[in-house]
Amino acid sequence: MSNQPHGQPVALIENSAGNYKILPSGAAYCSGIIPDPGFEVIRVELQSWLPLERAYAFIETYLKGVGRPVQAFCGIELRVPEPLTFDKWSTFNVPYLEQLRKWALMSGDYSLVCRSNIALDLYPPTATSMCAFSFTAPATSNGLTFLLSGQADIGPDNKIIAEGEIGSQAMQQRARFTIDTVAETLKKLGFSWEDTTRVALFHAHDIPELWGPALLGTIGEPIRRGVLVYRARPPIAGGEVELEARAIRRDLVATIL
Q: Which letter does DSSP use for residue 210 in this model?
């Protein structure tokens, strides 16, 4: 498969130092990234999670060790102790965005990095921690790779879908929103579900008929690869469902010494 998207991407921002382009979303994270021709996205999962304030130095050291500039950093996966109110969420983002600016990973008010923040329902960390990160590097194969940020059940107007409700219909509505939004993001990048190598779903309350034709069944044949499911929630209080999708050929594990 070619390392280029099928369709013509729209409104992408270039990160030439990091060898990738982004679909912008906002200050905290971009919607998705596509590596430049001849490059791929590599994901690194940490065997032992690192508190976020220590993770920055680890990322710098790791990238230096593999001969990549810090601007090649393109994705971070975080685990938070508990969901935050919108006010606390804004405060939470301040030091993170300062770090991105230090690394020249902001384009005006837009972040150049994908991000997911997940509040685990079981055994959450005591402090916000990094469990994985991604970066671009010269490709070792001709396979397609890309990365998307996590999509919570929160609309572009910052309104939570079916807020305050966790009944069957509400949970289906929340799941439907995340599936539709991720599908639309894939389309904007020139991709489809067929191109993904991993889909991950985060929820704590039951979603009736989740695997039926109205919800995950809309993914089509790629669903045979399965969906990684976590008992967890989005990072914003009131959110109940989050969905991730990516295409990765090299998924590594790093040991913290």
A: T
- Using the CB atoms, write b or e for 205-241: b if 16+ within 10 Å: bebeebeeeebbeebeebeeeebeebebbbbbebbbb
Q: What are residue 100's phi and psi, to 5 degrees?
A: -60, -40
- Looking up tokens 């990095």, which residue turns up? 113
Tokens (6 digits) for 66 = 């593999």
| DSSP-derived pairing of the beta strands 110-111 and 39-51 | unpaired
pLDDT, tens digit (0-9, with 9 covering 90-100), for 69-82: 999 999 999 999 99
Give kind and range of the element (H or E) at residue 99: helix 86-102
Mean pLDDT of the chain: 94
**Residue 113 burial by Cβ neighbours in a 10 Å radius (0-12, 13-18, 19+):** buried
Three-class DSSP category at 150: coil
- At 106, list the tokens: 């902001």
